[in-house]
Write a structure and sequence with these properties.
With 384 residues, the protein is an alpha+beta fold. It has nine helices and 18 strands.
Length: 384
């Protein structure tokens, strides 16, 4: 009994040692972590670019590395199709077949020349949508999913709000100009970031060309209009757009040394050069740093009625964040977790979050998980 009591006391002491300073302060060379913090003012150096609005984010965290008028209302043109593709990939089987209706044939603007009655896979439609910017492909996708472009637009707006793109409104799946069809550079970055979580979207967006399976005599070979995948070192996509009213719009992505960037420029006469300069800026000014390794024990929490008196918690994956080169910032972390939890506990159940601050400003959060199984205590004689 004395040994059991001693072990319990030692366990509680260990928990207290691991739990002390639940709000820790550290100095690092520029640690920065971001989630849904919106750029209310311009961020970064004043660069000479043609874009009316622009933003660069680090893809993994969403951290804004550069912004110019990023919350200003703009018209997205065909970059709208990023959201159309996102919804299609979430809701459709790529090998399912769509029968083309009269509404999806002969659509204004860019086209993959769909014909009434033609049977075509979602896969071919999505490549035609993203690489050739087919407005007819957008209509075929939207109407097959929702029955009408109007109903699909409702779905687009719902999905955009879920992502955090709250300053946008979409009325069609293609991006044809409409006064009520608008967005911001920051919102488009959020939408692109969400789409890039889907491996099939990444593959489509990065393709330089694609051969569809539409049969002999059809328009089968699609070449990507987005020069980012051809010209920019590490370029990985995503989508261009243009209408006379919106100007040139571009959502670009790239990866160097493990760091992925998304760059959005809107109403940009020099759209590609602007994007290249902004992504160069991101790589010149920032680098990645590991805040915590995967499965690293960060904290212990007391357990009630468990076969062990405490449970370890930590991240499931590496917490990697972009840091600004050659600058030192004060980083503080706060554990948003319960002080005591009830058994049973299963490994990889979510335990809370690690909230991260830089120079006193909340930047974002990362999920924390239980790192071990704790079963319910069977021996009722055990001393608590």
């Amino acid at each position: 009994m004395k040994i059991t009591r001693l072990l319990t006391i030692l366990s509680i002491i260990l928990v207290l040692l691991l739990s002390i300073n639940s709000h820790n302060v550290m100095s690092y060379s520029g640690f920065v972590m971001s989630g849904s913090v919106k750029p209310e003012k311009d961020i970064g150096e004043a660069l000479d670019i043609s874009a009316q609005t622009a933003v660069v984010i680090e893809l993994n965290t969403g951290k804004v590395l550069y912004s110019k008028n990023a919350q200003q209302k703009v018209y997205p043109a065909s970059t709208t199709k990023i959201l159309t593709a996102l919804i299609a990939l979430e809701e459709c089987n790529l090998d399912d077949i769509v029968t083309i209706t009269e509404k999806a044939s002969g659509v204004e603007g860019s086209s993959i020349y769909l014909e009434v009655g033609e049977k075509i896979s979602y896969r071919d439609l999505l490549y035609g949508l993203m690489l050739r910017s087919g407005n007819d492909a957008a209509i075929a996708i939207s109407d097959s999913i929702s029955g009408s472009t109007e109903k699909f637009a409702e779905k687009m707006n719902e999905r955009a709000k879920m992502i955090g793109a709250v300053n946008s409104n979409f009325v069609n799946p293609s991006g044809l100009f409409n006064e009520n069809h608008y967005t911001t550079a920051y919102d488009m970055a959020l939408i692109a970031r969400e789409a890039m979580k889907i491996p099939e979207f990444r593959e489509i967006a990065a393709s330089k060309s694609y051969v569809a399976d539409r049969g002999e005599g059809k328009y089968n070979t699609f070449y990507n209009k987005n020069k980012v995948v051809f010209e920019y070192e590490g370029g990985t996509g995503i989508k261009i757009g243009y209408t006379k009213a919106s100007g040139r719009t571009l959502v670009a992505s790239s990866e160097r040394d493990g760091m992925e960037l998304i760059c959005v420029v809107m109403n940009a006469h020099n759209w590609f050069n602007d994007s290249y300069r902004l992504m160069d800026y991101g790589y010149e000014k920032y680098e990645l740093a590991r805040l915590a390794s995967a499965e690293r024990i960060l904290k212990a929490v007391l357990v009630n009625q468990g076969d062990k008196d405490y449970v370890f918690i930590g991240p499931k994956e590496d917490i990697i964040i972009p840091i600004k080169k050659d600058e030192t910032s004060e980083i503080s972390i706060a554990y948003n977790v319960l002080n005591i939890v009830d058994a049973p506990i299963r490994r990889w159940d979510e335990a809370g979050t690690l909230d991260i601050f830089i120079d006193g400003e909340y930047i974002g959060a990362q999920p924390l998980y239980y790192l071990e199984d704790i079963d319910l205590l069977v021996d009722e004689t055990r001393i608590k």
